[in-house]
Amino acid sequence: MNQDISALRRDYQFQDLLESEIPQDPFTLFDHWLEQAIESCPYDPTAMTLSTVDPQHAPHSRIVLLKQRQESGFVFFTNYDSDKGKEIATNNKACLNFFWPELSRQVRIEGTLHKVERTASETYFASRPKDSQIAATASPQSKTIDRETLHSQMASLTQTLAEQDVPCPKNWGGYELKANYLEFWQGRPSRLHDRLCFQLQADTNWHLFRRAP
Length: 213
Ligand SMILES: Cc1cc2nc3c(=O)[nH]c(=O)nc-3n(C[C@H](O)[C@H](O)[C@H](O)COP(=O)(O)O)c2cc1C
Hints:
Number of domains: 1
Number of strands: 9
CATH superfamily: Electron Transport, Fmn-binding Protein, Chain A
Bound molecules: flavin mononucleotide
Distance between the termini: 30 Å
Structural class: alpha+beta
Helix content: 25-40%
Low-confidence stretches: none
CATH class: Mainly Beta
Mean pLDDT: 95
CATH architecture: Roll
Strand content: 25-35%
Order of helices and strands: HEEEEHEEHHHEEE
CATH topology: Pnp Oxidase, Chain A
């Protein structure tokens, strides 16, 4: 690395994030921020970092795409036999993180993951382009594999399924994160960022508080 990355910095500025001006329901605020991100961020505004932990309590993070937002839930789709799927099976606590640089915004969401209804996975799978359906079927996600094997599995399945609908694989489907903590971070000049947090209390009430940036 020839560049001095410690010198890379910018002043964050978009707008204030004030208790008096936000909805008291974190999901209304999240949906509003997501709509603004979709308008302002040209690449993958629905991309989120998903963090899970393995049985040794080691954390693992990767990007997945938010595909549905419903009531208190955040839904993504994946391979249930992947590393993340195995981690979730032994510990369903997880964290999602969105970063929207064009808006100087970050959202952290913590909660528990649950598989969505099978019919919901099948419905979403059916809406995907055929190539993506075949790739999801051909790829043993997270397993060690050589490139030739993966490509020949894809080619062979493409031929087999040429004239028919691709069934949703049994090991593929959605997870919904049920949130119990959401944190909205708005970058502000001179590092005096706004950081508003919602903690679920007694399974019903959202407690709103501010944290130091
Ligand atoms: C922009 C982007 C979007 C992605 N979306 C998904 C997704 O929706 N579902 C998924 O399983 N993997 C997605 N991936 C791949 C994951 O980051 C990861 O490599 C994969 O799920 C395997 O993770 P695991 O081995 O920890 O289970 C995406 C990667 C990127 C960079």
